[in-house]
Amino acid sequence: MKLTKIYDELFLLNEKKRSAVLDIDMHILDMIVDEEQKLTDIIMKVEKERQDILKKMAAKNALVNKLSNSKTLTMVCPTEYKEKFLTANEKLSNAVKRTADINETNRLLLRGALTAVNININALVQMKAEPNYKENGNQQFFPQNKNLDFKV
Fold first, then answer.
1. pLDDT by residue (tens digit) across 107-121?
2. Coil, strand or helix: which one is 65?
3. Which of 83, 133, 142, 150 has the fewest CB atoms within 10 Å, counting from its CB?
């Protein structure tokens, strides 16, 4: 349940991020990215806790290991907790999928915005800037060879 709540918060943050990207509000976008990083750090911590629990379960049951899926865990789950476990697992899966989907949409929006900015910069400085960054974090710039024919 803890992870589901965190992913729900991340989803809401991604909705705000979408608005910030569409409004081109870099200040809000910067704050959202900082919040996303905090939530991602929490997810990593909770995931570590989950893996520690699986290690303890694995010590008691040979079917369980840190890569066990929900089907395996359901088989070893005590009967009185199976329904609750399945419900929690389904909620978490849905929250992760929903968050991943909106994150992908935001990634495409950000890429489109970067491309639009690059087109405007290219037009202003008569240079062509690639919308992608190299491994070292730098963009590539190329002079634009405009062979314009001014004959009418």
1. 998 888 888 777 777
2. coil
3. 150
